[in-house]
Amino acid sequence: MVNLIRRSDRRAWIERTLPADLCVTFTSDWTGPFDGSSLTREGLDVAGYKLFPWQIECDNPWWSRPLKYGEVGCTLAHLACWRDAAGHGEEPYVVVLEDDAILSTDFLARLLDGLDRLEQAKIEFDLLYLGRFPLEPDREAVAGFVVPGYSHCTFGYLVTRKALSALLAAELEHAIVPVDEFLPALYIDHPRGDLRARFPKQLNALAFDPPLVRQRSKDEAGSDTEDSDFVAS
């Protein structure tokens, strides 16, 4: 569960909805450079992190501006989750949630049922979106699932052990981009050529349809990524 130490309000909110049978680790219980409000370029450099040359001249407002510290911190939090999962346990799947995810009361039952149906249909995957924001058309898969097109948002997804290895082998810490862009780059031909070259497509992705997880509105929960400063060049 991606959660900042200073956002105990979000932690308390989502803890009320987490299934009792779900073993959860919170990033707010770790020490790490996850909070964009306290990150600095010098601190990132000292820690050995490197940023991808993100800003380009284009009509896309997300690409034509510098990275935000909140985006960097969010990416590092997800990276920490992958590292922790790879080093602990032998479960075949790992679920990563952000603390503004909205879980239904039958979330775990629906998740397990979906995984069972995929296994019965012998459909292999590496990444499974539980919720997202589609930017391009999807393709049909089997009932209850689609092959996702270009998508944003990482408030709920599942990865396999094989996928964890691929995520870590990409060395995202040496070319930090928003995790929203990193994951799609690994399962589609990313619309940015520089991202395609740095993070080539290598994963098979699926997505629950309809989504299993929704996201709280930013008016209600705020945004720790967007409400942060731009990284100085």
As an assembly, this protein is single chain
- The domain count comes to 1
Kindly report how far apart the N and C termini lie.
31 Å
**Major β-sheet strand ordering:** 1-8-3-9-6-5
Q: Which sequence of SSEs, written as H and E, runs from N to C? A: HHHEEHEEEEEEHHHEEH
Query: How many alpha or pi helices?
Result: 8
Radius of gyration (CA) equals 17 Å
Supply database-style keywords.
Spore Coat Polysaccharide Biosynthesis Protein SpsA, Chain A, 233 residues, six-stranded mixed beta sheet, 8 helices, globular, 14% strand, alpha+beta
Any overview of this molecule?
The protein is an alpha+beta fold. It has a single domain (8-221), classed as Alpha-Beta Complex (Spore Coat Polysaccharide Biosynthesis Protein SpsA, Chain A). It contains eight helices and ten strands. It has helices at 8-15, 41-46, 69-87, 107-120, 161-169, 179-185, 193-198, 218-221, and strands at 93-97, 101-103, 127-129, 133-134, 139-140, 145-147, 151-152, 156-160, 205-208, 213-215. The strands form three sheets. A six-stranded mixed beta sheet has the order 1-8-3-9-6-5. A two-stranded antiparallel ribbon has the order 2-10. Strand 5 (139-140) and strand 6 (145-147) form a beta hairpin. The chain is globular.
Q: What is the topological layout?
A:
Layout: H1 8-15, H2 41-46, H3 69-87, E1 93-97, E2 101-103, H4 107-120, E3 127-129, E4 133-134, E5 139-140, E6 145-147, E7 151-152, E8 156-160, H5 161-169, H6 179-185, H7 193-198, E9 205-208, E10 213-215, H8 218-221
Parallel strand pairs: 3-9
Antiparallel strand pairs: 1-8, 2-10, 3-8, 4-7, 5-6, 6-9
Helix pairs in contact: 3-5
